[in-house]
């Protein structure tokens, strides 16, 4: 069975002792930290599935900690623990931090506590699977681009799903800088003004034409377009 790791962050040692005892009953590996600094030091070299963090702590408050956690370790499921959580704090947490659940003090070891932990661990497992899938997709995309760019038979663009340029052949960069959109939303095709070239929409993954080749890539749950001019 895969080890499930939960990191609890609170400046109250009694609270940490309670969480440690309860979570070990749920067959979870528990790590405790008295402040965000200790938590980040542990996270640098260890895998964590779920973080349970208090809100009111010295040096760095819980929301600031969880905001940083989301930025650096977005796959970790985040749970807030607080006895003084007001509506404004809840809205901030939901909008900025992406909180999975709230736990209120004083804590109670009951079915609701167990349910939150089980659901959080299940979400963490889904996050891991998504992360692995995205890394695999990124590798495939990289391999595809390397193969295509080695072909010296034309200039290229790499476009995101909205048709904005995210990579471009150096010889085209002056006329077509990064960020501009080649997609014509009115008809969903592409238009290259400096080449007076219209590329009609197509449902095919590869569209070959005497003037261009358009390849549609579906990865990361979205679409990219590789456009090469002949």
Distance between the termini: 54 Å
Number of helices: 5
- Number of beta strands: 13
Mean pLDDT: 86
Biggest sheet record = 5 strands, parallel
List the strand order in the largest sheet.
2-1-3-4-5
- Principal-axis shape equals elongated
Q: How big a fraction of the residues is strand?
A: 25-35%
Q: Assign the structural class, choosing from mainly alpha, mainly beta, alpha/beta, alpha+beta, or little secondary structure.
A: alpha/beta
Residue windows where pLDDT falls under 50 for at least 5 positions: none
Q: What descriptive keywords fit this protein?
A:
five-stranded antiparallel sheet, 5 helices, 27% strand
Care to describe what's here?
With 230 residues, this protein is an alpha/beta fold. Helix content is 36%, strand content 27%. It is built from five helices and 13 strands. The strands form three sheets. A five-stranded parallel β-sheet has the order 2-1-3-4-5, sandwiched between helices. The chain has a five-stranded antiparallel β-sheet with strand order 7-6-13-12-11, covered by helices on one side. Helix 3 links the parallel strand 3 and strand 4. The longest helix has 39 residues. The protein is elongated and about 70 Å long. The model has no long low-confidence stretch (mean pLDDT 86).
């Amino acid at each position: 069975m895969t080890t499930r790791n939960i990191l609890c962050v609170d400046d109250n040692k009694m609270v940490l002792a309670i969480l440690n005892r309860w979570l070990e009953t749920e067959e979870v590996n528990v790590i405790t930290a008295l402040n965000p600094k200790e938590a980040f030091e542990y996270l640098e070299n260890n895998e964590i599935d779920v973080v349970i963090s208090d809100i009111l702590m010295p040096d760095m408050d819980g929301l600031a900690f969880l905001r940083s956690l989301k930025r650096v370790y977005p796959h970790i499921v985040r749970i807030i623990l607080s006895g003084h959580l007001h509506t404004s704090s809840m809205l901030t947490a939901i909008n900025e931090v992406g909180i999975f659940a709230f736990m209120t003090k004083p804590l109670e070891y009951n079915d609701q506590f167990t349910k939150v932990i089980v659901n959080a661990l299940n979400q963490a497992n889904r996050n891991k699977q998504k992360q692995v899938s995205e890394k695999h997709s990124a590798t495939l995309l990289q391999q595809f681009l390397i193969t295509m760019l080695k072909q010296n038979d034309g200039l290229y663009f790499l476009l995101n799903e909205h048709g904005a340029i995210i990579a471009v052949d150096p010889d085209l960069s002056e006329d077509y800088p990064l960020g501009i959109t080649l997609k014509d939303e009115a008809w969903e095709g592409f238009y290259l003004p400096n080449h007076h070239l219209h590329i009609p929409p197509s449902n095919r993954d590869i569209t070959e034409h005497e003037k261009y080749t358009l390849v549609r890539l579906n990865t990361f749950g979205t679409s990219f377009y590789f456009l090469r001019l002949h």
